[in-house]
């Protein structure tokens, strides 16, 4: 059986030469797949995440269909909070909703620490997946402290993150305690996934683009760095992703990433000099899958060509797959990337 370490995905993540540019998609599992909609019928999102059999099947669905170079563990960034008993739900079409938003130091202290014993279903799902995936690497993931804090403080999705940033600016002690708590939780969540066999990790700081570089550096980066440091000690490549982060790419690399995820707004040619001696992941505009196939693949070729200047390049969309995406287009895109870039 081929060695996982020789997979194109892990080679690119380590900055080694690759047989073809590896490709996977954020949110490759999920509502764009009819087989996902069928299997999720009548089962809540968080219940699905805590059911190893479902997690294995849902994670494998896009791997089977597209032949992508990596699987992403099916879970959610708020799952660790749920596991320690925070009262929250993932509302379809909305996102995570927290019953009692966190505002005070007492609220922070009331959130228990995460221990591996609280997530045996994660260990079971990851071990089962790794056995099924064979030569395809599994990416574990966690939410970065800022993005998870935003859900906890706002109580749900937010455009401005105003309450979150008000805490950051106005109550530094509460902020620091909250960020430390989430950082520990996310790091433990990653450790559990890697211990069970995940061969890379991605830290999602989806909403970090709401911050200026100075505020990111002072109030957020040290906490993300703690998560990435603990992940680094596990010896697996670390991908660090956010949306709208053209001003933050250098800092997100410095926080301790091996690969920096770039959203579609920033051309890779601009991103690559900013991330230093690191790889990049991205970054086709997710709406290009709605364009004619030749338009989509021409733009994908531009992304691949730009990626050649990086230490390593993992092809992806610039954010998650949009639920109305036609799976046949993603299949075409996967095949295009894998064949276009042979012997890159
Ligand atoms: O394929 C994958 O990427 C695998 C799993 C995954 C999910 N969520 C599954 C999911 C991952 C990596 C996440 C991370 C996540 N969750 C992030 C960071 C990534 C990003 O998109 O920026 C964020 C911000 C969340 C919070 C969250 N959870 C949102 C905003 C939503 C969407 C709400 C909606 O219905 O529009 C969720 C729910 C969620 N997480 C779904 C999936 C497949 C949809 C659930 C469903 O099918 O009803």
Task: Describe this entry's structure for a reader.
This protein is of the alpha/beta class. The protein has a single domain, classed as TIM Barrel (Alpha-Beta Barrel). The protein contains 15 helices and nine strands. The strands form two sheets. A seven-stranded parallel β-sheet has the order 1-4-5-6-7-8-9. The chain has a two-stranded antiparallel sheet with strand order 2-3. Strand 7, helix 13 and strand 8 form a beta-alpha-beta unit. It is globular, with a radius of gyration of 19 Å. It starts with 7 loop residues before the first helix and ends with a helix. The structure holds coproporphyrinogen III. The site of coproporphyrinogen III has 24 residues, from strand 3.
The CATH architecture can be named as Alpha-Beta Barrel
Sheet with the most strands, sense and barrel status: 7 strands, parallel
- Net shape: globular
Unreliable segments of 5+ consecutive residues: none
Give me the CATH fold name: TIM Barrel
> What distance lies between the first and last C-alpha atoms, to the nearest angstrom?
24 Å
Structural class based on helices, strands and sheet pairing? alpha/beta
Order of helices and strands: HHHHEHEEHHEHHHEHEHEHEHEH
Report the count of strand segments: 9
């Amino acid at each position: 059986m081929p060695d996982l370490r020789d997979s194109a995905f892990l080679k690119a993540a380590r900055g080694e030469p690759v047989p073809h540019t590896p490709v996977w998609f954020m949110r490759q599992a999920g509502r764009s797949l009819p087989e996902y909609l069928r299997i999720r019928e009548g089962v809540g999102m968080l219940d699905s995440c805590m059911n190893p059999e479902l997690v294995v099947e849902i994670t494998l669905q896009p791997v089977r269909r597209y032949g992508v170079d990596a699987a992403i563990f099916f879970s959610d960034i708020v799952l660790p909070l749920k596991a320690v008993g925070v009262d929250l739900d993932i509302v379809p079409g909305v996102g995570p909703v927290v019953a009692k938003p966190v505002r005070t130091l007492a609220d922070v202290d009331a959130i228990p620490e995460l221990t591996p014993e609280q997530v045996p279903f994660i260990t079971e799902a990851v071990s089962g997946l790794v056995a099924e995936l064979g030569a395809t690497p599994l990416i574990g993931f966690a939410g970065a402290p800022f993005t998870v804090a935003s859900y906890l403080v706002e109580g749900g999705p937010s455009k401005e993150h105003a309450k979150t940033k008000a805490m950051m600016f106005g109550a530094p002690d509460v902020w620091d305690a909250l960020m430390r708590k989430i950082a520990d939780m996310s790091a433990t969540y990653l450790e559990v996934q890697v211990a069970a066999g995940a061969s890379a990790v991605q830290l999602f700081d989806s909403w970090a683009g709401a911050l200026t570089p100075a505020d990111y550096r002072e109030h957020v980066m040290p906490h993300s760095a703690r998560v990435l440091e603990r992940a680094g000690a596990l010896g697996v490549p670390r991908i660090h992703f956010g949306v709208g982060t053209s001003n933050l790419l250098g800092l997100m690399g410095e926080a301790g990433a091996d690969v920096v995820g770039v959203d579609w707004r920033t051309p890779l040619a601009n991103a690559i000099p900013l991330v230093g001696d690191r790889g990049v992941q991205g970054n086709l505009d997710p709406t290009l899958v709605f364009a004619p196939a030749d338009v989509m693949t021409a733009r994908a070729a531009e992304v691949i060509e730009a990626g050649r200047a990086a230490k390593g390049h993992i092809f992806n969309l610039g954010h998650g797959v949009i639920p109305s995406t036609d799976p046949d287009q993603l299949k075409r895109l996967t095949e295009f990337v894998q064949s276009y870039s042979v012997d890159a």
